[in-house]
Amino acid sequence: MTMIVIQKQFSDRVNRIETSSPLAVVTEAAKMRAEGAELLSLGMDQPHFSTRDHIKEAGIAAIQNNFKKYPPVAGIPELRRAIAKRHAADFGSDYKPEEAVAATGGKQALFNAIQVLVDHGDEVIIPVPYWVSFKDIVEYAGGKCVYVYADEDDNFRLTAEMIEDAITPRTRAIILNTPCNPSGAVMDAEDLRHIVRLAHERGIYVIADECYVYLNYAGEPFSAGSILEAKEHVVVIGSLSKTYAMTGWRAGYSLAPAPVSNAIQKLQSQSTSNPSAITQKAAVTALEGPQECVQQFCTEYIHLRDRVLKGLETISGIRCAYPEGAFYVYPNVSSFFGRSGIRSAADVAGRLLREAHVVTVPGEGFGTKEHIRLSYATSAREIDRAVERMRDFFAKL
Known about the structure:
The protein is an alpha/beta fold. About 40% of the residues lie in helices and about 15% in strands. It contains 13 helices and twelve strands. The chain has a seven-stranded mixed sheet, sandwiched between helices. Strands 9-12-11 form a three-stranded antiparallel sheet. The chain has a two-stranded parallel ribbon with strand order 1-10. Strand 5 (about 170-175), helix 8 (about 190-200) and strand 6 form a beta-alpha-beta unit. Helix 5 packs parallel to helix 6 (about 130-140). It starts with 11 loop residues before the first helix and ends with a helix.
């Protein structure tokens, strides 16, 4: 008698995660465009601005100067110095260059940090709504997500008390994302200080996703890395993607105490190794060069935010928390559930795409079931046209 052994095809760890929902939307939209559809995109999380010329010129110069050899895993020395120096100048932190690790975007820096800190069974506190990758990266590491639900009626404000109530003896890390993707919520600086100090006292790591830290419209940007007495338990995740409109360059970094940075470097040495040599030269110029573009981007985003909010107010049935940072609005569309076969935010986003040809991202990937995410990192004309299409779509339901 022949025995048939059925083997699983994929590892348990890859089966624990899902495809990023924004990327899934982009894939479907790209297919529709290829078939001739004229889409208006409020779905992608990247600036519509061009990378500034002095940054592009640094990349071109690196190519022309044949800067093509493998750089060190954690980044060329001048980039690590530039990361630490820029962060210290802007936030008063005290990181040494060897505590900075350059990564292929903020997502890799986040992935690295969670993989080296979180083990099977460890609990990681994640505020809701959350950036789509938090949940999956924690689960890939074998950790358990503990969700803290921010109050939509209070503009998704996250308080220290909410986090403290979720801490247990198994808590290993707390992920904080301010300004928040997708809600645009900005944490109060005092709440952030309280959480970081509390975590430090209990030996819990705070992983601070600060990819939007400069896009804070509520006041002065504030970093968890500036709380010097808690540095031992803080990992800052940074990115040049949004700050300098460099998404496709893939330039991110982490700042962490030396033991954590060394572990991150070890992990990265066995995965991607270093970020692109060309990107690293451009990143040095971005960090050390003129910073006027950062404020220029912020000013324009405020105008675009106000424009999309004003447009959404004209759509009966939609309500939206007031975002104070990043470049997203997160409207609640639950009043349309039960109409014309719509049962979920995913249904709303899917039908907006297929019927109104407006690209949005459903809230399920961000941990809520009642919302869609719109990015206003686009032109005013694109926003106006998209809102008009949305208004017509919802009026017919």
